[in-house]
Amino acid sequence: MLGNIWLTSALIVTAIFSASAVYKSYSDIQEAKQIQEHYQIVSDIKALLAKQYNKNPQDITRDEIIANLPTGGNWEKILLLDRNDSSTINTKELINSKGQIEISKDERLKLLALKAKLKDTLNTSSATLTGDKYTFEVGFNKNLKQKDEEVDRSVSLAINYLANEILYQGKAVDTTFDDTILKFTPYNNIYQDFGTTIETELKLAKENYFKEKIKEKLILNNDAMEAKLYYKIKDEF
């Protein structure tokens, strides 16, 4: 009988520890997902502020982000490592005062989650280890004004190319237009959110965006060439 009681107690203790381990694993996975969500939110905010104030995203501080958040609703929570009611920026800091992400080197799952999020945009091997924390830049990309300027430059190049090929060389409108879009679309400089991460859909969305930029410029009819070119290719938009 004592043996049965001992066995039952052991099973209960094992079940408790197993349940605890499962919950801990689930909790870690949820926090790993949150780390990716937090990064994306803060990165988007930095991108908007960078464009508004003509600054590099990595130069925007945490205080600047907080100052531009809506009042009420405790929006500061997006800057925390977790969303528990008891958390504060001081006790659960995800974004440091310089606007960088900080994660303890012991939180391996969160580090892996963040590296997976950043693999296409940032060299994560260059992350700085200070003490027991890794520091990652947020929104580490070219100045958005510079990106816009390069898109405008690509629009001008595309228009000049279209004019030469269609107006002066007499080449077919449809195939020339399609080739021009593929040739001149500045994929790496178009940063707008198109609501998809699927590569083929994103590529098409950027090409359509570039077409609209060409159309916007031609509609202005700044000179006779642009007016004539728009008349020739307007059905392609």
Can you describe what's shown?
The protein has 237 residues and is mainly alpha-helical. The protein folds into 2 domains: 2-136, no CATH class; 144-236. Helices cover 58% and strands 5% of the residues. It is built from 7 helices and 3 strands, in the order H-H-E-H-E-E-H-H-H-H. It has helices at 2-53, 62-67, 108-118, 144-168, 173-184, 199-219, 224-233, and strands at residues 101-104, 128-130, 133-136. Helix 4 (144-168) packs antiparallel against helix 5. Mean pLDDT is 76; it is low at 1-24.
Quick take:
This protein has 7 helices and 3 strands.
User: Which spans have pLDDT < 50 for at least 5 consecutive residues?
Assistant: 1-24
Count of helical regions? 7
Order of helices and strands: HHEHEEHHHH
- The largest beta-sheet arranges its strands as 1-3-2
Which strand-content bin applies to the residues? under 5%
Structural class: mainly alpha
- What's the domain count? 2
Shape: elongated
Distance between the termini: 84 Å
The residue-averaged pLDDT reads 76
* Number of strand segments: 3
Biggest sheet record: 3 strands, antiparallel
Helix content: 55-70%
What's the alpha carbon Rg, rounded to whole Å?
Answer: 26 Å
